[in-house]
Amino acid sequence: MIQFTIQGEPKGKGRHRTNKNGHTYTPQSTVDYEKLVQQEFMIAGQKKLEGDVSLDAYISARFTIPKSTSKKKKAKMLSGEILPRKIDCDNIAKIVLDALNGVAYNDDRQVVNLTVSKIYSEKPEITVRIISLER
Fold first, then answer.
1. What does the angle CA 135 – CA 2 – CA 30 come to, to the nearest 5 degrees?
2. How far is CA 128 from each of CA 10, 29, 73, 88, 96, rounded to the nearest angstrom?
3. 63 phi and psi, to 5 degrees?
4. Which of 12, 59, 68, 81 is 20 to 30 A from 117 (CA-CA)?
5. Are 100 and 46 in contact (CB under 8 A)?
């Protein structure tokens, strides 16, 4: 099992942009966040899964509560009664799985099961857990 945490506000994969010359590029914020995911994976001392594997991936994204939130609403957010709507789950998964291509596994198409959750928390971060499902 591989598990690590990316500290800070969760981010989603940004859409590719096209400049005036028709060249397509990835937004710098996406590139930077993917590098952060890779760094956290390596700092945690994780090793690339080798061989023929299927993967079960779990991504838990914890978002900060806006400062202007009332105490009553904040309590509901922390208890899970109110859940975050910003950033689509698929964009969170995409940025994490793409960042780990060639680093944690050969290709993200090896992922056969994926769970993404979003909650509010006092501490913003993403926890990633990948389990090898050996054949």
1. 110
2. 12, 20, 28, 17, 8
3. -100, 150
4. 68
5. no
pLDDT of the residue at 97 = 95
CA pair distance 56, 61, nearest whole angstrom: 17
pLDDT at 135: 56
CB-based contact 14:26 (threshold 8 Å): yes
pTM as predicted? 0.89
Residue 99: exposure state from Cβ atoms within 10 A (0-12, 13-18, ≥19)? buried
What dihedral angle (degrees, nearest 10) is formed by the CA atoms of 93, 94, 97, 98?
-160
Q: Report helix angle 89-99 to 28-43, nearest 10.
A: 60
Tell me the three state secondary structure of residue 68: coil
Beta pairing, strands 53-63 & 111-120:
parallel
Query: In order of start, what are the domains of the chain with their CATH numbers?
Result: 2-134 (3.30.1330.70)
